[in-house]
User: Fold this.
Amino acid sequence: MLLPKFEFHEPESIEKALVLKKQFNSGARFLAGGTDLLVYLKKKIVSTDHVISLQRIEGLGEIRENESDLFIGACTTMAAISRHPAVQKRFCALKSGADNMGTHLIRNRATIGGNVCNASPAGDTLPALLVYDAAALVISPDGKRDIPLRDFFKGPGKTDLKNDEILTGFRLPNPPDHSGAHYIQLGKRKSAEINVVNAASFLTIDPGAGNILSVRIALGSVAPTPIRAPEAEAALMGNTAGDDAFNAAAEIARSRDCSPIDDFRGSAAYRRAMVGVLTKRTLAAAFDQARA
Amino acid sequence: MKKLIQMTINDRAYEVAVEPNKTLADLIRYDLGLTGTKKGCDTGDCGACTVILNGDPVNSCLVLAVQADNAVIETIEGLSTDEGLHPLQQAFVEKGAIQCGFCTPGMILSAKNLLDKNPAPTEAEIREGISGNLCRCTGYQKIFEAIESTRS
Assistant:
């Protein structure tokens, strides 16, 4: 398969990248890891006259530990996320998502910014980013804005990003003490899989009384975008953490928070059933961590 | 417009002018004649085009040649020495891990990267380490045994 002809630009600063994007507008596409874009170009799913590589822009590929949050640059690869000590220690559900994406060869190129901008309902890092309450950091010629990740996805392959904007990275607030999070993906095999259903949960508990102080549940592959499960979350808030509460929340997530469809990877009914199972399991695993 | 890029492949320096829409796999095979790197699916699924780019194995069909400017690359041709085959290559021969051979260069480079970073991998780690490389002949077991026989 041949790649169509295009002009290649490799700006060394965000400012230069913004100028190029403004100049070529919708005739230009940003290139990060290339594991989606180059496939789409080869298969003629997208076409473009200009490819603007973000790879040589300093800082976009780094992970920075701040006092109250973790910054992950948009061009950080899945492999780099997985081996970063702060991710391993405090954001294990994100590590798990990064570890399960594609194959080890893909993970050495694919970036978190690409995974998010590709906006697949089944994206591997997306449920974890949602439950860690990540914000997408965006820059344009007009200035900067932060988009809460739950407002970022607008449809399959569609995001809130405007034509002249660049996603520079993500800010993940450090989880408070007595928190835990877990991610599970369900597929037919262990590698190179597109998820049938994927889910993540995050919990903070009061270590004395055992009640739930905060909770976030995110589901993938069961709606046009990765979603939070607001009704299940509402049912858990303030309750005593444990199997009874988790079973009840799983039932609500299954019946009210998702809208799966039939496709060749699985039926809507199976997906819905698995939302219940994965919600329960991710909550239980998050709870085990939170009280550890 | 062609762009002049420099790279080191198997310890040899190259300077080539490439079109922006040329992949690293095509550059390595057709311009540089290193045909040990195979092209299977061309979409990052099969791993036949695996090369080690700046220390990490990647699908060279999903890297633009221009992105590899100043890179250090290792292909299957870089493994053997005057003394003979690389121990992994020898193990693949001895264990019958090669049938048609199309996946073998990628398979060996993935295995080499695994063993370089983790000299004593578990069974699960070996299987994970080659999970990006598809083989339609062997059923993977002999490949697994070849890699297992060379771990420390």
